[in-house]
Design brief:
Helix content of chain B: 40-55%
CATH topology of chain C: Porin
Shape of chain B: flat
Structural class of chain C: mainly beta
Distance between the termini of chain B: 45 Å
Number of strands of chain B: 0
Radius of gyration of chain B: 20 Å
Structural class of chain B: mainly alpha
Radius of gyration of chain C: 23 Å
Order of helices and strands of chain C: HEEEEEEEEEEEEEEEEEE
Chains: A alpha/beta (about 170), B mainly alpha (about 80), C mainly beta (about 400)
Strand content of chain B: under 5%
CATH superfamily of chain C: monomeric porin ompg
Number of strands of chain C: 18
Strand content of chain C: over 45%
CATH class of chain C: Mainly Beta
Largest sheet of chain C: 16 strands, antiparallel, barrel
Number of helices of chain C: 1
Strand order of the largest sheet of chain C: 1-2-3-4-5-6-7-8-9-12-13-14-15-16-17-18
Helix content of chain C: under 10%
Largest sheet of chain B: none
Oligomer: heterotrimer
Chain lengths: ~170, ~80, ~400
């Protein structure tokens, strides 16, 4: 695997920033660990940008079947609730970006997709199942952690999101 | 052996307790390689089944030809 | 392999298929829907056997799937054991399998039924298995049970004008326990233990044992084999799979077999799988098998009825075989098309060399050049090829 020196340093820098900002472990009821990651579309995005909105952080991978299954439903959900102050962040845990780009080129989504190849954010959020969806309220507190995906779970997501939007 | 029994029992209890505290050392987001189809124990059951069938026809041995597990670990 | 050999296999095939169904990936997600069309041909030892099969599986809900397959085996030829009959053997076996799979939480339950029928052999197997993920999904525990009932018959006529005589029944109970453990990001290991109890009519009705008989021109005579009516066997297999950094997989396995007939078998296998992009998968395999002979096996007995149990079946002779195989899979629809997620075509070729250490070639060698018991040891080569198309939905 060859990466240019510039990219290597960029990755180191990203890791450093992530490490510096993930000071707290993630559990329901606690504050959502802050993070800044490289966005697939370019540039960086931070969780703090979305403070004041209801945020769902969805951890997924190109090699994870159930993750693929829920993506279109997450996209629908994102479009539906965005005007009401909801945002969905897809955090991809693949080690290599090309597979992610290729998959999203074939099956695009409209919500932001961030890359966590070093798995620092996954660790900070104690991801113990793939996929995992962490729902964070407007104040930045983790309210629900949903592990795995089975068809029908999207109704569960929507119920929780509607509840938090109303708060 | 009688004097070993309490020790064995204690050992079994400790082992069970220790096992329940083991944290998975390969995290679900680290299972990309294990989820690769080439890492499946069985890619084509119909083919392996046929080859096993041919072997059993000629050999006295039989059984224990399968493993399960590995993979994505999703859900 | 002669048609008679295929008999014993039926029950085994059924159990094997049942056990194979326990082989899958993780226990909490059902595999993709698929359909396979399969053709195979075995040529060796004077026999030609073709196999044609179709398989389909579908998820009815996310937690529940059905699988069904139909398999037709056609045997023709005359094996080393067909000494007296001049006619070729021609027979057909049909096998139907139905399977139900159900997932709940981290457990997968599988129930299957296999029915196999040919002119002089019937076999039915029912099996149940359970797979459980535990310890953060790093460990998978499998438990399986299969019960087989066979009806054993003999064709006393010819291949074209059969006269079937039903000789008896055989039952088999198979228990297996397996553990699969993810050791590192790149390494997975498995251990499987399988205990099988057979009872009933376990002999091959078409085989005979031979004994010294000076009154016969050949120097020996043949008589019906006498087998024990029970057999208990234990097999233990360990396997390891490792992911090579440049994207390839290497698998090593070893199986130890022992039974109450005094047989001990050792199987060693090495596989290497090498994908090329998302389109090709190349695979090479090497397998070595060796066994000693069963304790009631002999190539030549001194006189008729020398022992309580006597057999001269190739399966029970001391011998070894080596397989070299290669397999190529081509994804002609790698990213899907309409309803297909992916479609592949596979060609698999194996070459097996058999050498027997105490089974002699009495079909082609004998007096006056060879005294009974000094004929050359038997050996032969077999070629197996398979072609199949797999479609994933």
């Amino acid at each position: 695997m060859h990466i240019s020196t510039a990219k290597f340093f960029k990755r180191c820098a990203m890791t450093a920033i992530v490490v510096a900002s993930t000071a707290f472990a993630a559990d329901a009821g606690g504050p959502a660990p802050a993070f800044t990651l490289e966005a697939l579309s370019g540039g960086q995005a931070a969780l703090s940008q979305y403070k004041g909105q209801v945020v769902m952080v969805n951890f997924w991978a190109t090699w994870c079947g159930p993750c693929q299954q829920e993506m279109p439903l997450l996209d629908q959900m994102y479009k539906k609730y965005k005007p009401a102050g909801f945002t969905l962040i897809g955090v991809n845990v693949d080690k290599e970006a090309p597979a992610v780009k290729e998959l999203l080129a074939r099956k695009p989504v409209s919500f932001p997709v961030l890359l966590d190849p070093a798995n620092q954010v996954s660790k900070a959020y104690h991801v113990d199942e793939m996929p995992s969806s962490v729902i964070i309220d407007r104040k930045g507190e983790i309210r629900y952690i949903h592990r795995g995906y089975k068809p029908g779970d999207e109704n569960d997501y929507q119920d929780r999101i509607r509840q938090l939007i109303r708060e | 052996m009688r004097s070993l029994r309490p020790a064995l029992l204690a050992g079994a209890v400790l082992l069970t307790a220790a096992c329940s505290n083991i944290q998975p050392w390969v995290k679900p987001y680290e299972r990309d390689r294990l989820a690769d189809p080439i890492m499946a124990w069985e890619r084509d059951a119909i083919s392996t089944g046929y080859l096993d069938h041919i072997r059993e026809a000629r050999e006295g041995s039989r059984g224990a030809t399968g493993s399960a597990g590995g993979g994505c670990g999703c859900n | 392999m002669d048609k008679a050999r295929a008999h014993r296999i039926l029950g085994r095939m059924a159990v094997l298929t049942a056990l194979l169904l326990v082989r899958a990936t993780s226990a909490d997600v059902l595999p993709d829907d698929r359909a396979d069309l399969f053709y195979s041909k075995y040529s060796g030892g004077g026999m030609d056997i073709t196999g044609e099969s179709v398989l389909a599986r579908k998820k009815i809900t996310e937690d529940f799937a059905l699988e069904a397959s139909y398999f037709v085996d056609k045997v023709s030829g005359a094996s080393i054991d067909v000494l007296s009959q001049a006619s070729q053997i021609k027979d057909e076996r049909k096998q139907k399998t139905g399977t139900i799979e159900f997932v709940h939480d981290k457990t997968t339950y599988t129930l299957s039924y296999i029915n196999s029928v040919e002119r002089d052999y019937k076999s039915n197997t029912t099996s149940f298995s359970l797979k459980q993920d535990m310890f953060g999904d790093l460990t998978t525990l499998s438990l399986g049970y299969a019960h087989t009932d066979d009806g054993v018959g003999e064709n006393d006529g010819t291949a074209f004008v059969p006269i079937i005589v039903w000789l008896g029944h055989a039952q088999s109970d198979s228990y297996n326990v397996g553990v699969s453990q993810i050791l590192t990001k790149n390494l997975i290991a498995g251990l499987d233990v399988n205990v099988i109890y057979d009872n009933g009519y376990l002999a091959n009705p078409y085989r005979s044992y031979r004994y010294l008989d000076p009154s016969n021109a050949k120097g020996y005579s043949l008589a019906s084999q006498i087998y024990p009516d029970t057999r208990t066997s234990t097999a233990v297999q360990g396997e390891v799979k490792y992911y090579l950094p440049y994207r390839a997989a290497v698998t090593g396995s070893y199986r130890y077999f022992t039974d109450t007939w005094g047989l001990v078998g050792n199987t060693y296998e090495l596989d290497y799988t090498h994908p090329l992009a998302n389109i090709w998968i190349l695979e090479g395999r090497l397998r070595f098998y060796k066994q000693n002979s069963a304790n009631f096996y002999s190539d030549l007995y001194q006189f008729a009825g020398e022992y309580n149990f006597m057999a001269r079946d190739q399966d029970l002779a001391a011998g070894e075989n080596t397989t070299i195989g290669a397999k190529v899979t081509y994804a002609f629809l790698p990213d899907g098309w309409k309803m297909f997620k992916r479609a592949t075509a596979t060609f698999d070729l194996s070459r097996i060399e058999f050498h027997y250490l105490d089974f002699r070639n009495i079909k082609y060698y004998g007096l006056p050049q060879y005294q009974p018991g000094t004929e050359p040891l038997y050996g032969f080569n077999a070629t197996v090829y398979q072609i199949y198309i797999s479609m994933f939905f």
